Amino acid sequence: MENLSLMMAPLFSSKLLLVLFFGTLFGLILGVLPGLGPTTGGALILPFTMTLDPLSAIVLLTSIYCAGTYGGAITAILINTPGTPAAAATCLDGYPLAQKGEAGRALGMATVSSTVGGIFSVIVLVFFAPLLAKLAYEFGQPEYFALAIFGLTMLASIGDGSPIKNLIAGAFGILISTIGKDFMTSIDRFTYGINELSEGIGFIPVVVGLFAISEMLTQSTMLDQVFKRVALKAVRLPTLKDYKLTWKTILRSSGIGSFIGVLPAEGGTVASLIGYSEAKRWSKNPEEFGKGSIEGIAGAEAANNAATGGAMVPTLALGIPGSATTAVILTGLIIHGVRPGPDLFREQPEFLYGIFGSMLIANILFFIFGFFGAKLFARITLVPNKILWPMIFAVSVCGIYSLSQSIIDVWIMLFFGVIGFFMRRYGFSVVPVIIGLILGELVEGTLRQSLVIFDGNWLMFFTRPIVLTFFILSTIALLFSLFKRKNKI
Amino acid sequence: MNSVQNKKRANKTSLPFFLKDEFKVSFIIIFISIILLITTFTFDIVPPILNRGIQPATFPKALLVLIISLTTIIYYLSIKKPWKVEKKLPKEFFLTLFTFILFIIISKTLDFFLAISALSIVVSYYWGEKRIFYLLLVSIIFPLIVFIFFETILGLRFPPGIITNIYYN
Questions:
Q1: How far apart (Å, rounded) are the C-alpha atoms in residues B162 and A477?
Q2: Cα gap A303→A297, rounded to integer Å
């Protein structure tokens, strides 16, 4: 009961309501614009959150996450281009249905199933995050090391590219985290006598560079791309017949999405693909899939929005990001001095339940915005890249400069933008770099502290049951992703 | 579709190995990793009495060895199955890249605001925007709004330069 009142607290704070309003609106705009999305948008907004208190900052980021994930569906349905990668499966049936003159029905179903999936996942978050955090009380340094290794092995299955390239990218991210003074001995590493590097490389310039600036370079190679937009009269709520046809699919996909979201480093993209394929498998009309099936839209959209709450479970309970966007949210937590983990649940329940409540409200807000404003949001796609991206660049540069009033940070952002572009061009995902960068200090710190505890005996790791379990899970996860994608290695 | 892909791959196999993307990418990763690995040998060594667990250089060394090993594996695998052929980069990409360099030079020597304006106008123009109003919008009006927003609302002081000095004076 007490937790419920903590969850409802944002409703009674005008400041948080305002943050939620703008976060949801901004998230929707970002989700609608192909190439941006909640991850890049979250990265762009990170420097601005420095002016907010920690709760408002995280509420802003989580509302962008929830609304941005849904926003991708609008573009997927109307222009056959997913606004976010998580909406890729929505294109399969959303666009064909829109072409049949039923864009309003398709968007209505996407809005309802996204809202149900999102709310379902917040309930999962409220119940499972404290349980996982309780489990983490048993963890010492060796267990955290093994957990971080498990999180890193899950990187192999990110995206649809080569698992080995993902692992290289993850190792590169951890390597970046070693730049600067060694936190245990204060010895300089990879600083090459440059004073600015002694403090290490900040998260935000790397995140904005890898997501926003590399996307700007990618857009420069796609200027001839033309979008064909399907006309939309108004969003229509699904009919009773639609509900009868899809309620099981929505619930199933909500469960699938929440579960996939909980797995470290997985996220909405994987969830929506599985949600879609399961919807097809259980459907009485599988032959309609790909031709404008309402069940296909419901399956994909409920799953990708359900992954938002799921992905927040390991992020808040263990400090291991559940998806690319939660990696950005985790960065937000760290720069605001909030260390996720069991202590957070014990010491700051009002902070956590404030986040849970805000996510719930964000899901309701994007339903309202989506239902009444989808037509307007769809028009945002008409803003040409030749105007949009120079503006994004100006905001990115000023935002990064504002962090520590250092021009070096801006150069670092540009450098990682170029690196990110070439990584993506040659099939290396940039998400593992961010997750590696975030987990780098945890991996090295816990490894070295564990070795102090074990008096330098590496074999002692295998004497602890939780560590052994995580090592076995890591091996299985790695072998599974290598086997599953043997064609893409 | 598959036959086109195979044809592209077949054409690609006729290139000498050092001109293929697989080799170039793997070579660059391994080359940089080796340089960084050599650097790790220059890190200070902590005396045993102060050393906690492992030396500060050990962890980065292990990571670099891992990166080199995994890159060798992907190169070996690419011999059997070449990577997808990437489209040649258009001139707009190189122009955008050039504007980044221009931005760094102008922001360091002349003015931060001017650097943003210069990049915005060049990028917008070469990406296809020829209308004067929109060029002014992205290069002057919008950066000015951003500048004032950061300056007044967030209290940020921009680095000195020919334009910012006029504003601050």
A1: 56
A2: 10
CA distance A389 to A218: 11
Task: Give dist(CA A261, CA A309) in Å, integer.
Answer: 7
pLDDT at residue A42 greater than cutoff 90: no
Q: Which of B20, B38, B46, B70 to mutate to test the interface with A (most CBs of A within 10 A)?
A: B70
Model confidence pLDDT, tens digit, residues A355-383: 999 999 999 999 999 888 877 777 777 77
Task: Give the predicted TM-score (pTM) of the model.
Answer: 0.83
| DSSP summary character for residue B163 | H
Element (H, E) at A355: helix A349-380
CA neighbor of A177 nearest in space, from A377, A406, A441, A425: A441
Q: Which of A152, A197, A386, A402 to mutate to test the interface with B (most CBs of B within 10 A)?
A: A386
Q: How many CB atoms lie within 10 A of CB A62?
A: 29
- The residue type found at B102 is L
The nearest CA of chain A is from the CA of B5 a distance in Å of 15
Is the CB of B43 less than 8 angstroms away from the CB of A189? yes
Position A384, amino acid: P
Residues B20-47 have pLDDT tens digits of 888 999 999 999 999 999 999 998 888 7
Give the percent of chain A with pLDDT over 90: 20
How distant is the Cα of A1 from the closest Cα of chain B, in angstroms?
A: 39
Hey, what long-range contacts does B33-37 have (CB within 8 A, 24 or more apart)? B33/B64, B33/B67, B33/B68, B33/B71, B34/B68, B36/A175, B36/A190, B36/B60, B36/B64, B37/B61, B37/B64, B37/B65, B37/B68
Classify each residue of A82-114 as buried b or exposed e, where b means 16 or more C-beta atoms within 10 Å of its C-beta.
bbbbbbbbbbbbbbbbbbeebbbbbbbbbbbbb
Whether residues B39 and A401 touch (CB distance < 8 A) is answered with no
Q: Give the pLDDT confidence of A118-151 residue by residue, as tens digits.
A: 999 999 888 888 888 888 777 888 888 888 888 8
Is A482 exposed, middle or buried (CB count within 10 Å of its CB: 0-12, 13-18, 19+)?
middle
- The set of residues, in sequence order, having a beta carbon less than 8 Å from that of A158 and lying 6+ positions away, is A166, A265, A266, A324, A429, A431, A432
Contact across the interface for B124 and A393, Cβ inside 8 Å:
no
As a whole number of Å, the end-to-end CA separation of chain B is: 63
Kindly provide the ipTM of the predicted complex, given to two decimals: 0.88
Overall residue count recorded for chain B in this entry: 169
CA distance linking residue A5 with residue A1, whole number of Å = 6
Across the strands, what pairs with A181?
Answer: A188
d(CA B58, CA A165): 23
Helix axes A268-282, A240-262, angle to 10 degrees: 140
B127 vs A48, A164, A220: nearest CB: A220
Is A180 in a helix, a strand, or coil? Answer: strand
DSSP 3-state helix, strand, coil percentages of chain B (rounded to 5)?
Answer: 70, 0, 30
Tell me what percent of the residues of chain B surpass a pLDDT of 70.
Answer: 89
